[in-house]
Design goal:
alpha/beta, Rossmann fold, two-stranded antiparallel ribbon, 10 helices, 11 strands, disordered N terminus
Length: about 290
């Protein structure tokens, strides 16, 4: 958990009371933080954000765009339910949850710039009465016990090291009968090979991967029931190959214009490395769902 010194804070906070749940919303994000050397350092810089939005769509930092959100919440009635999106990124996920499903959403992320852009995206969409994106420190979730109906995640929990503590917190903040539904990037049950290590080097992000089976065991240990686990590695392998081809074809000039030739070449190599570990089965995207008894 990082230490935060707030300087020159000026924001207008107002309270929305919706179905007995209070949501805090920043009228315009004006929070400045200074992190000490031991604190969290943002990993998603402007270059990476620009590249990922070009590949995956505006407001998205992981594959699949709006359809991936629909796949994660398939079959769920979210109208007026309070959804906690842990790792909300640029807010594209939360806009979909609010507009397509009528959910009320609290989005949390540890990266200041991502939250700033998420808040601005929510404002542009006219959703400030339904979506609240907040900067949050790593560690215990800043919510009360049994506060939310659904815990949602999209390819962001890969960055969380202590999965047991994390899922215990998710269980705590869910109401009885609440649902955890998410997608994430998993690993195989074999030791990392050289290709996977090279992929991590190219990514330059902090990953704490686990197997899908271990996710299921942790969820059970935390008290969840009706757990379903779905490996979708084959689906994303095909998508990643299409993305890799597009980066060398239709998207090449757009990438050069946005990033420059050197960074375009770097990210093409990054995607080649991604396709290699997907082909080898070392990287295994998945979806999973579980319920809190109630």
């Amino acid at each position: 958990m990082h230490n935060v010194t707030r300087v020159g804070i000026r924001f207008h906070i107002f309270t929305l009371k919706l179905s007995h749940v209070k949501l805090w919303h920043w009228d315009f994000y004006r929070e400045y933080v200074e992190l000490n050397d031991a604190g969290h350092e943002d990993e998603y810089d402007d270059t990476l954000i620009a590249l990922l939005e070009l590949i995956w769509g505006e407001g998205f930092l992981s594959p699949g765009g709006p359809q991936a959100v629909r796949d994660i919440v398939k079959g769920l009635d979210l109208k007026d339910k309070l959804v906690l999106d842990i790792g909300c990124g640029l807010g594209g996920l939360d806009v979909i949850l609010a507009t397509d499903y009528g959910a009320r959403v609290i989005g949390l992320d540890v990266e200041q710039e991502l939250v700033k852009q998420a808040v601005e995206r929510v404002e542009r969409a006219g959703l400030i009465e339904r979506v609240s994106c907040r900067l949050s420190e790593p560690g215990p979730l800043p919510l009360d016990d049994e506060e939310v109906d659904v815990v949602f995640g999209k390819d962001s929990w890969i960055h969380i090291e202590d999965k047991n503590a994390f899922f215990s917190e998710a269980f705590r903040v869910l109401k009885p009968g609440g649902i955890l539904t998410a997608g994430d990037w998993m690993r195989s049950d074999k030791p990392y090979g050289n290709d996977m290590k090279y992929f991590f080097e190219m990514e330059g992000l902090t990953y704490h991967m686990d197997t899908l089976g271990n996710y299921g065991e942790i969820l059970r240990d935390c008290g969840f029931t009706e757990i379903t686990l779905e490996d979708i590695a084959d689906d994303y392998r095909n998508q990643a190959l299409q993305e890799y081809a597009a980066m060398q074809g239709p998207l090449k000039q757009q990438m050069i214009n946005a990033l420059g030739e050197e960074k375009q070449a770097f990210f093409v190599e990054n995607w080649r490395a991604l396709t290699v570990v997907l082909d080898a089965g070392e990287l295994r995207p998945a979806r999973f769902r579980a319920y809190k008894p109630g």
